[in-house]
Amino acid sequence: MELEGIYKSADSETCIKCNERELDRDEDIDANKYQNLSQTEARAQNQRGLTGRSKCVVLSTVCFGLMCVLVAAVIVLHIKLTEEREIQATLMLQTSSRYQTEKDQLQNSFNSLSQKKLELETRVKDLTAEKGQLQRNFDSLSQKKLELETRVSNLTAEKSQIQNSFNSLSQKKLELETRVSDLTAEKSQLQNSSNSLNQKKLELETELRKISEQAIGCLVASNKEMSWSDSRKYCRDRGGDLVIIKSEKKQRCISSFIKDMVWIGLSDIEKEGNMTWVDNSPLKQGFWEKNEPNDAGGKEDCIELNPGKTVLNNWNDIPCSDKRKCVCEI
After folding, report:
1. Nearest 5°: phi and psi at 268?
2. Whole-number pLDDT of residue 242
3. What is the rounded distance in angstroms from the CA atom of residue 287 to the CA atom of residue 248?
4. A single GO molecular function, which one (predicted)?
């Protein structure tokens, strides 16, 4: 609108200049004609020239008035447009400020939402990892649950077997208790019988000792262990000598009488391989252990009796310096 008003103002100024040039040209023509015409014609012509100039002045005045009106209209329009433009600029500034504020708010909201989105993505990632871990834990616990159920089933079966075994053992316990009771009674009877037999044994041993003493004389066993020569001296100091065994009966009697290995009155000290008794009588019947006498090392010249061996095979030659108890015959 402003440019259109400026263009209209320029057109009005051009029109005024054209009218002025036309007036100057008409005046020049009228002056020339006036010189050539007669005075009458000059008057008439002058009258017509005045009429033409009056029209031109009126037209110029009208054009100038219109131009002023147009200029005024343009000025008013320019002022109005300027005011509208300022109002629009103010509105645009306000709108721009509001839009900028809204934009900043939206940007802040966007930034906040972006941050929350990142946090949520991180949270989702963490929750996904936790879910995976929980799933693995759940699978592990499920497997353990199955194993425990299997274990419980096995233990239940074992419990049933143990219960059956317990019932069986309880029954056997009752049977054993009954058996123990019976055996206790039998033991009591056997103990009574044993006591009776021991009493009879003592009586028989006493009687046997009396018979032995009558048969072989008085026998004395030492409590101290000594060499063969010291043992013989021990017996001589008591009025006797080491025992001489020349019969199976006496061998059996002495073997049953003693409990420890003892010296007897037999040796080959005088001559190797020539066994003689302490009364210088030669050996006629011996009760040797297997492979004895063997004179091991060439130093076994004295004879011991070992009651732990078989009654009729319990003699053994050993070094005379060894320590043994002895049996003296008084």
Report:
1. -125, 40
2. 97
3. 9
4. carbohydrate binding
